[in-house]
Amino acid sequence: MTLHPALADLLRAVRDGGRPPFSACAPGQARTVFAAACAALGTGPEVGSVDDFDIPTRAGAVRGRLIQPPKSPDTPPVGLIVYVHGGGWVVGTLDDYGAIARALVVRTGCALLMVDYRLAPEHPFPAGLEDVQDAIAWAVAHRSDFLEPGRPLIVAGDSAGANLATVALADGRAGGWTRDVALQVLFYPVTDCDPNTPSYGLPAEALFLTRADMLWFFRHYAPPDLWPDPRVSPLRAPELAGLPSAWIATAEYDVLRDEGEAYARRLEASGVAVRLRRFDGMGHGFVRMMNHVAEAHAAFDDVACAIAECAVGRSGGLV
Q: Could you give the CA distance from residue 113 to residue 81 in angstroms, rounded to a whole number?
């Protein structure tokens, strides 16, 4: 199908308004442009509490933000989501992703921990990845501080955040803590460095994220000789067995569509339970438009149901 009319109108307005593509920006300018776009999505619903604190890492500490659901004595959090925001490893802040984080908390009844990992190019690969690894491992070790016994820990991320999340989980297998994660939620993940897939060939005028943008992000994140490294391109990992069950969303009009779907197939072939959803007519980043586009709201509802099913011990509804 064609790009959803609401998204087509938004894309046209963005370009008519003169907003430069990421590939034409310096990193600081790209962050300003991205923050302005995120602010237009709103702040999200009211929650129980929001608290910032430091999470210890091998490099010192990163900021964490714990968002709790509306509280009552009879409704403690049903799970803990560790959320890794997107932004091509270069842009994005905890505030930029506050709306979707708050919505996930209210919709699922889970507490949610956001991770303010270091960004490239000031902190290139593997700095951000190590921050995410350490933050997830810390959350596993401290889950009893946030959850009643038996409640699940879920790791979620979008775009480059989904890349960091799933790679961190793969690396965590050696330390044994990955088995304590019940579900990974990956919104339109970056899983490979091949810019020649059919989805990379989609017409640029129908894309929120273009081929040129993705190459710009990659160049800032890591030198080209490291792009095929499985810790940058997890689709190239020799083995994916032992990872948590996965809920994966892709968008029809997204350069990352094909690699996200290929990663889902690799996970399934490795014995990992996967629920893959392609959302036709949607573009990159569409889930955060849930308050504006019915199809985006449906996608958000689908993942919220998977998380809720996981919280009651049904493996995210994936098996």
A: 6
Catalytic-role residue among 49, 144, 159, 233: 159
Query: Buried b / exposed e across 180-206, counting CB within 10 Å, b at 16+?
Result: bbbbbbbbbbbbbbeeebebbebeeee
CATH superfamily of 5-317: Alpha/Beta hydrolase fold, catalytic domain (3.40.50.1820)
| Cis amide prior to 121 (ω within 30 degrees) | yes
SS3 call for 28 = helix
Return the pLDDT at 292: 87
Q: Quick one: which H or E segment has residue 235?
A: none
CA dihedral (165, 169, 175, 178) positive or negative: positive
Cβ atoms of 295 and 252 within 8 Å: the answer is no
Structural contact between residues 291 and 41, judged by C-beta atoms closer than 8 angstroms: yes
- How does pLDDT run across 242-274, given as a tens digit for each residue? 999 999 999 999 999 999 999 999 999 999 999
Residue-wise pLDDT tens digits, 81-104: 999 999 999 999 999 999 999 999
Alpha carbon distance 261, 3 (integer Å): 19
User: What confidence score (pLDDT) does residue 316 get?
Assistant: 44
For residue 43, what are the contacts with CB-CB under 8 A and spacing of at least 6?
Answer: 98, 99, 102
Q: Token pair 């569509």 is at which residue?
A: 257
Residue 49 known to be catalytic: no
**How high is the pLDDT of residue 163?**
98
**Cα-to-chain-centroid distance, residue 302:** 15
Q: Give first-to-last CA distance, the chain, whole Å.
A: 30
Q: Is the pTM of this model over 0.85?
A: yes
